[in-house]
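Run log // design_07
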């Protein structure tokens, strides 16, 4: 179950969750300018938003695959852990930072609840566990800021969890 299947499972899961204000889910970054990435990406991702809207971008920054039991050379019994960073690019065009924060919080709350209420992410073939164990589900956000128009309130955030696979059986060919 390679990274491609985990990325696909996450994309499909969040496309089908009806998270408030989330309109688009990208399986990877669709914008790559490094300088001032958050601010420039915020404008790129949210340029067509009217009211409140959020774009979700899936990042798999690393993985760790570890053998968990002696199974002989012809078999595996491995834990493959994929740390996941779900980037949130949120914009609110009302100009009211309190409204923007409340609506952003609604998106984050719904994401955390979705992960914790379905730790297989709807894909039991590829996902053994998500958002569980010691790491759980974590969130961090930027301070809200306004764009050049002075009215659009932007919030950049990240919801993080681990997605685990358990690979047992014969060595894949």
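design_07 sequence
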């Amino acid at each position: 179950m390679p990274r491609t299947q985990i990325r696909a499972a996450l994309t499909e899961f969040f496309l089908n969750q009806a998270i408030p204000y989330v309109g688009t889910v990208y399986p990877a970054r669709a914008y790559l300018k490094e300088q001032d990435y958050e601010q420039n990406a915020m404008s790129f991702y949210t340029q067509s938003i009217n009211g409140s809207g959020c774009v979700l971008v899936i990042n798999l920054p690393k993985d760790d695959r570890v053998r968990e039991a002696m199974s002989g050379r012809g078999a595996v019994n491995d834990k493959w852990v994929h740390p996941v960073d779900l980037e949130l690019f949120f914009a609110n065009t009302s100009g009211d930072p309190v409204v923007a924060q409340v609506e952003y919080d609604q998106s984050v709350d719904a994401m955390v609840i979705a992960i914790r209420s379905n730790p297989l992410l709807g894909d039991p073939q590829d996902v053994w566990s998500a958002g569980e164990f010691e790491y759980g589900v974590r969130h961090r956000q930027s301070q809200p800021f306004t764009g050049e128009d002075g009215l659009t309130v932007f919030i950049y955030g990240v919801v993080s969890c681990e997605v685990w696979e358990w690979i047992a059986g014969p060595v894949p060919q």
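The chain has three helices and eight strands.
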